[in-house]
Amino acid sequence: xxxxxxxxxxxxxxxxxxxxxxxxxxxxxxxxxxxxxxxxxxxxxxxxxxxxxxxxxxxxxxxxxxxxxxxxxxxxxxxxxxxxxxxxxxxxxxxxxxxxxxxxxxxxxxxxxxxxxxxxxxxxxxxxxxxxxxxxxxxxxxxxxxxxxxxxxxxxxxxxxxxxxxxxxxxxxxxxxxxxxxxxxxxxxxxxxxxxxxxxxxxxxxxxxxxxxxxxxxxxxxxxxxxxxxxxxxxxxxxxxxxxxxxxxxxxxxxxxxxxxxxxxxxxxxxx
Length: 272
Known about the structure:
Mean pLDDT: 87
Number of strands: 11
Helix content: 25-40%
């Protein structure tokens, strides 16, 4: 399979209201993760950190891109087992009531019919978006109470944005429910820019504002910073975390850091 050249940026901020940043982020090309923890200090922040640790280890070991879905499923199960074991240890030590859980949205390069493609997986309401042709599309589907109400026609999407139960999720890693992730496979050609974010981004700025930032800021590092800044400007009511990944192209040669640097400079207009 051809190797894929990626440029990326990532940013996270505790926000203007919360005292602890329970979000965690991983940018270890070609593996990217955003996890939004639940349960407070030493609960949600530990749970989200476990997700990042497990996927970082997976990226370090390497994986078979033709079996990427199986690899992601196994890694999510390892995350779940560690989170549940940690919560049980805390309760046994008298720290109770104690809850540790987290959402997770994952993106990595997979192989489909011999060609590279994006594989996305999500649990909870952390989201995956793709930008293509100047249009922004939400790929993942929120696992939340309000999303279920929207799908059944009880409320509108606009009403969901301000619903009092908009933060109540129906799937997560941790807790008694052992729900499964949703998976999405996207051809590389359908994704010019990939975005993973916690609801501290998507809950603070609407899709049109997000699209405007992504479409006007060429460097993915600057784009990630700009999205977090916009979420803070809108009130910063939650931890805000985002990863922005550009698919630059596919190459036959092995990874070359100098080549990536020159490619990024040319893309940004530094080089002719």
